[in-house]
Each structure stands twice: as structure tokens, then as C-alpha cells.
Amino acid sequence: MSFLPALTLVAQGISLVSGIAGTQLEAETSARQDEEKAAVDLFNAKVAEQEAVAEMETAEGDAVDFRRAQSARVAASRAVMAGSGFTLEGSPILVDQAALAEIELGVQRVLHTGRSKAATLRQEGTLLTRRAKTSRINAGLTRKAGTIASIGQAAKGFAGFGDTLSTLGVQFG
Fold it and tell me: CA-to-CA distance for 173 and 165, rounded, in angstroms?
């Protein structure tokens, strides 16, 4: 065997190995990017859940504060009426009942707003968690696809070696 055919075989071998390594590196890089996305999405899902809890706690605190402030306003109004000699019957009592109903409506609005915001944050967290799972699945599939592609390249490369050896007159048998 002369120098040139041997050099051809070496070049084919280097090309084959570098092609396989490149395919594996590309697959691994893509898989790691998917895993990185998954980690970020899981972190953001946890943050969204924490924000949902904080939103509910804030809404509950705001509702208590609102009820307390409005109850104090009604109590002050009653004190003014009592000081003026009005009795709490008839029209003044209806006004108080209406004011108390408005207070409770305000409390429920505050709580509803908090629940709505918390629900939105929880949905966001759920979507991020699902997206993270999908990214992890994609990472595994990408690695498997890279391995399959490398096996295909190796088979093609070995067939090329066989063709080169046949061309050089090397016989197996």
C-alpha cells in the first residue's frame, strides 16, 4: 500500500471521528440548553407560587384593615347620632345596615381581587412547571437523537472505508 491511499484512509477516519464528535457535541449542547430552560422555568414556577401566597396574605390583610377602618367610621357616625339625640331606629338603622353591607361588599372585592391575582400566578406556575417537564423530555430526546445520528454516521463512514479499501484492492476474506 502506498502513502497516498493510507493518507486517504486516515483522512476518512479523522473526518468520521470529527463528524461523530460534532454531532454528539451539538446534541449535548442542545440538551443542556433544554435542561437550563427547565431549571429557569422551575425557579420561576416557585417564585410565582410564592407571589400567589403573598398576594393572598396581602389581600386578607387589606380586607381586615378595610373592615376595621370602615367599622370605625360607622362607630363614629353612631356616636355622632347618639350625641345628637337621634335614636338608632327607623331610617338611621337602615343607613347603618346599608353602610355595613357596603363595608362587607368592599371586603369581598378586596378578597376577590387577591384571589384572582393569586389564581393567575398559580396558573403561571403550573404552566412553567409543565414547560420545564417538556424541556427535560426534549433534552433526553435530543441526546438519543444525537446518538442515533452518530451511529448512522459511523455506519456510513465504515461503508466508506470499505469502498476505499476495495478501490485500493484490499480484499477481505
Answer: 13
Please count the CA atoms within 13 angstroms of the CA of 53 that sit on its side-chain side. Answer: 5
Q: Which residue has the cell 360607622?
A: 74
- CA atoms lying within 13 Å on the CB side of residue 9: 16
C-alpha radius of gyration, the chain, whole number: 37
Evaluate if residue 148 carries a pLDDT over 80: yes
Within 13 Å, how many C-alpha atoms sit on residue 142's CB side?
19
CB 136 within 8 A of CB 35: yes
Q: What is the pLDDT of residues 74-107, one digit of tens each?
A: 888 878 777 777 666 667 667 778 888 999 999 9
Question: What is the pLDDT, as a whole number, of residue 87?
Answer: 65
* 164/173 Cα distance (integer angstroms): 16
Give, as one character, the DSSP assignment of residue 107.
H
What is the pTM (predicted TM-score) of this model?
0.69
The residues near 164 (Cβ < 8 Å, ≥ 6 apart) are 5, 8, 9, 12
Q: At what angle do helices 3-84 and 91-167 cross, to 10 degrees?
A: 180
**CA-based nearest residue to 92, from 78, 103, 79, 102:** 78
